[in-house]
Model the fold of this input.
Amino acid sequence: SSAVAAAKLGAEAEEAVRTLLRFIGENPARDGLTETPARYVRALFEHWMRFTSAASSPSPRLISSIVNPCD
Done:
């Protein structure tokens, strides 16, 4: 089912974040970082959902921010 596939992708994404933490010399199991992979994946998902919903009906402001990101 799609829920199982989404859970699998979420778990894979969280493991990828743990890998990145190890890559920069952090211990993903230490206090203060244990929930970071899940928080990061949730934030990424929320950002993606806002982006995709905005892209389905782009506003002039969104288009302007893409074309002129420094304005």
About this structure: The chain has a mean pLDDT of 81. The longest helix spans residues 2-23. Residues 7 and 13 are 10 Å apart (CA to CA).
